[in-house]
Specification:
It holds the Pfam family DUF525. With about 130 residues, the chain is mainly beta. The chain contains no helices and 9 strands. A hairpin with a 2-residue loop joins strand 1 and strand 2. The relative contact order is 0.28.
């Protein structure tokens, strides 16, 4: 698990290799990740959007921007946390992701970015 704190918001990531399958005559490697967002600040905040940079070891890189996370824009009061799971497909058994969440602080009404640490995506069979 990797973690990082930005402005009192802690992001922790846990990854898992889910297996391989064929789609359009090509093998894909499926990975899941679980993100936990913890509010260690003194203010209530809301996640409004996300930005992901997905790196594949075969140099297929993708940028994904979108509203909220899995259809939600969670509000976190001080001391609260939100956990969700999602996933991605790679063309190879190795890769990585990083990104940030755009958030708003309800006390100051200011927008800010909370960075998601770089996390590796690695198929268990490829570790040897």
């Amino acid at each position: 698990m990797v973690s990082q704190i930005t402005r009192g918001i802690k992001i922790s990531v846990l990854t898992s290799f889910e297996g391989t399958y064929f789609k359009n005559y090509k093998i894909h490697f499926a990975f899941s990740y679980q993100i936990t967002i913890e509010n260690h600040s003194k203010d209530s905040v809301q996640l409004t959007s996300r930005h992901w940079e997905i790196y594949d070891s075969l140099n297929y890189n993708e940028v994904v921007d979108g509203e909220g996370v899995i259809g939600k824009k969670p509000v976190l009061k001080p001391g609260e946390q939100h956990t969700y799971s999602s996933g991605c497909l790679l063309s190879s058994p190795y890769g990585a992701m990083k990104g940030y969440f755009n958030m708003i602080n309800f006390t100051t009404t200011k927008n800010f970015k909370v960075f998601v640490p770089n996390f590796r995506l690695c198929a268990s069979f490829a570790l040897n």
